[in-house]
What we know:
The chain is α/β, with parallel strands linked by helices. It contains 9 helices and 10 strands.
Amino acid sequence: MPDRILGIESSCDDTSAAVIEDGFLLSNVIASQQVHKDYGGVVPELASRAHEQNIVPVVSQALAKAGIQATDLTAIAFTRGPGLLGSLLVGTSFAKALGLALDIPIVMVNHLQGHILANFIKERGEENRQPTFPYICLLVSGGNSQIVQVNNPLDFVILGQTIDDAVGEAFDKCSKMMGLGYPGGPVIDKLAKEGDPKRFKFAKPHIPGLDYSFSGIKTSLLYFLRDELAKDADFIEKNKEDLCASFQKTLIDILLDKLVKAVKQTGITEVTIGGGVAANSELRDRIEEEGRRRGWNTYLPARKFTTDNAAMIAIAGWFHYLHGERTPLDVVPVSRIADY
């Protein structure tokens, strides 16, 4: 009998369910919440309410698209954390209730592990390139910026991480300062394609080791815009493409500088990226360029698997399930997880 894993993801503002059969994706359904755009960021209370409305239809659609019944499932994988506690509570409670009703095991998953293992999601008819262990993953999202050494699907070592803000937050704050909307990453990526990345210079932090810092570059942009707007009230509108290109280049320079150091220090040349910022087109291009130049084997997950989705939770849960891990029904979600 094949292993059919239902994955449930509800860590932030997307409700998602997916079905994996022996590592191959059968379905991946995502319900996004548009209401947060009006507030320039995710409102936790609104997010949890929307999850309550979406969880049943999303799971039903995932099962239907996979062509199976709930009784055909082997186990249920769900995101325990990190994330918004109210949102996580919806997914965790649903997974426990469904697992109990079907008398099948549940498996908790660290949300960040899902991003790191997204390259192992297989789709029929696709090339399905996968890194070999050990590999280095640059994990970049709205809440996390880390360099992780992955020794096997259950063994993760953090080599470096941000000491303050995440790179995804820097993209969002930049967009907010310029009045470009939320989420900021896709908007900046699009405008940057039309701009000159060398037009403006922003301060880069000097942090020892492999750790990151992104608070200073946001301050640098804030003061720069303040001074320029004092001279010309239309400065942003006249220069938004160049501003986005220059700011984006600075962020990616910072990311790649530490990634190159990590590869040199470890000697591991299998390199992947994960997380929402892994959808950024310049970051993807430049990592591939570095790989060709330095002899790395680079692996980029499909863009649909970079943002929050249940397929990555299902594949991570499958690895845990194969290892014999099972989660008791008294488990509770956690907003923060210190390590892997």
